[in-house]
Amino acid sequence: MRGIRVLQGFVLLCILMVPVLIIVFLKTMTTNTYDIPVYYESGVDNPLMECDFVENEQHRIPSFEFTNQYNEKSGSEEMKGKITVVDFFFTSCPSICPVMSTEMERVNDVFRDIDDVQIYSISIDPEYDTPEILMKYAELHQATKDKWHFLTGDKDVTYDLARCGFILPAMDGGDVPDDFVHSDKFVLVDGEGRIRGYYSGTQREEVDRLIVETKILLYGKE
């Protein structure tokens, strides 16, 4: 029995060491670099979106301020100097949101004790998703306080932020949950407000990649 416990402990240690070894490898092996892109360095060229983009200038997340599940203000100011993983969802979503939120639980768990990483899940149905509703949803998904923020705010501001800030599609569904349109993407944003990656929140392997690249931004050199 003692031998089994020792073996189990060794296996667990190996599993925990894998991300660290990946980061050390990427930092020390100069011929094997892992390049995390900076998106929209020369501005956003997207004629389908009615946004006031600045040409030939690095795109950054614009200023915004919403309310989280604790009735506290959270927004772009609280993103400064931190890595933020962002998605757009709504609590009554009948399709992809439950899967996305379950996958985001994994991100929450991995970075639970790391203050420099946070999560913003922004509701595209703010009229229904009050802080009280978001609190119940947060508890359902075991969100860590001060880590995973479920945000609600002005509807027009929310949709402009999705389309013009995070460069994601979003469409109001009115009173019909099935008519809401939003992306399944998780967006990785660095401490300077630059978008560093897009990942499908419905695909486990994509979320695995998000977790690895978040760790590289956190511990590695760009």
Would you spell out the secondary-structure blueprint of this structure?
Layout: H1 2-28, E1 65-67, E2 73-75, E3 83-89, H2 97-110, E4 117-123, H3 131-140, E5 148-151, H4 155-165, E6 170-171, E7 181-182, E8 185-189, E9 195-200, H5 204-219
Parallel strand pairs: 3-4, 4-5
Antiparallel strand pairs: 1-2, 3-8, 6-7, 8-9
Helix pairs in contact: 2-5
Keywords: Copper, Membrane, Transmembrane, Transmembrane helix
Family: Belongs to the SCO1/2 family.
Domain Thioredoxin: 55-219
CATH superfamily descriptor of the largest domain: Glutaredoxin
Secondary structure class reads alpha/beta
Radius of gyration: 19 Å
Average predicted local confidence, pLDDT: 84
Q: What is the helical fraction, as a range of percent?
A: 25-40%
Query: What's the architecture of the largest domain, going by CATH?
Result: 3-Layer(aba) Sandwich
Low-confidence stretches: 173-180
The tally of domains stands at 2
- Largest sheet, described in full? 5 strands, mixed
Structure overview:
- The structure is a single chain.
- With 222 residues, this protein is α/β, with parallel strands linked by helices.
- It has two domains: 1-33; 65-219, Glutaredoxin (3-Layer(aba) Sandwich).
- It contains five helices and nine strands.
- The protein has helices at residues 2-28, 97-110, 131-140, 155-165, 204-219, and strands spanning 65-67, 73-75, 83-89, 117-123, 148-151, 170-171, 181-182, 185-189, 195-200.
- A five-stranded mixed beta sheet has the order 5-4-3-8-9. It has a two-stranded antiparallel sheet with strand order 1-2.
- A hairpin with a 5-residue loop joins strand 1 and strand 2 (73-75).
- Helix 2 runs parallel beside helix 5 (204-219).
- The longest helix has 27 residues, at 2-28.
- The chain is globular, with a radius of gyration of 19 Å.
- The N and C termini lie far apart (46 Å).
